[in-house]
Amino acid sequence: MKIDDTYLYTGGRAFDITRPTAVFIHGAANDHSVWALQSRYFAHHGWNVLAPDLPGHGQSRGAACPSVEAIAEHVAGLLGALGVRAAFVAGHSMGSLAALELAARRPDAVGRLALIGTAVPMAVGDALLDAARADEERARRMIVGWSFAPASQLANNQKLPGLWLPGVALSLMRRQPKGVLANDLAACKGYANGLTSAQAVAVPTLVVIGESDLMTPPKAAAQLIGTLRDARIERLPEAGHSMLSEAPDRMLEVLWHFANDR
Q: For 125-169, what is each residue's pLDDT tens digit?
C-alpha cells in the first residue's frame, strides 16, 4: 500500500479500519523488512499492520527525514490519513525514538508503545558519524560489528542453515540510497527532547533490551525507563542490538503478548 510517496507494508492483508492496528517503525538505513516475522504474524492474526519504509528508505521516495521529530510527524500523517487511533506502535533503534516522540505528540494515535534497542539520549560516536559521511561501507561494517551478540556473528549458529545475520544486515544497509545512513545517525544524535517527551507518554510502554547490545547498551535505557510513567521491561539474554533477527521468535512472543494484554 502507498500513501503519497510512502510505501507501507501490510503483511499481505488489506487495511480494515474496524481492526486494531499495529505500527512498526524501522531503524537507521533499514526498511520494513526487518519486521518480516513479527509484522506478518500480526497481519494474519486479526490486526492491521502498517510497517512503513520511511522517506528515502526502501520503496519510499523523497528525502530522508532530517530529524526524529520529522519522522514522528511523518508517521502521524500516515496514521491520520487512514483514521488510525490508539494503535500499538513499536519502534527499533532510531524507530524507537520516533515512536516515543509520536506517542508524546499524538496521544490519541498511540494506545500502547514498544521501544526496542533504545536509549535516550542515543549516543552516536563522532567516529561512526564521520565514517558514515566519508566512507559508508566502513560505517556499515562498524555497525554490524557492534549490532550482534557474539554467537550471532557465526554463520553456523542460525536457525536457517547458511543464513549469516551480519551479511543480511550489510545487504540491507547497502540497498539504501547514498547519504541515508549519515542522515539517520545524525537524527539519532540530534534528538535532545527524548526525556521530556517520555514524561508526556501516558500509555503502557514496553522496553526491550538486548543484554549483549553494544549500540544501545542496557544501562543506556535506565534514564528513559525511570522517566516513563508505566514502563515494562523485557531483557533478551541471547541478543544484541539486532534482536529482531537474532531472537525473532522471542521478539514476536514478547510483542504479541504485550499488544494483546488488556
A: 999 999 999 999 999 999 999 999 887 765 555 555 557 889 999
Rounded (5°) CA angle 94-95-100? 105
Say what the pLDDT of residue 7 is. 98
Strands 231-236 and 205-210: parallel
Segments of the chain scoring below 50 in pLDDT: none
Q: Which helix (H) or strand (E) holds 260?
A: none
Q: Which residue has the cell 536509549?
A: 119
Residue 238 phi/psi, 5-degree rounding, is -95, 0
C-alpha cell recorded at residue 133: 559521511
Domains of the chain and CATH, by start: 2-122+191-259 (3.40.50.1820)
DSSP state letters, 137-198? HHHHHHHHHHHS-GGGG-GGGSSSTT--HHHHHHHHHHTSPTTHHHHHHHHHHH---HHHHH
Q: Give residue 231's pLDDT.
A: 97
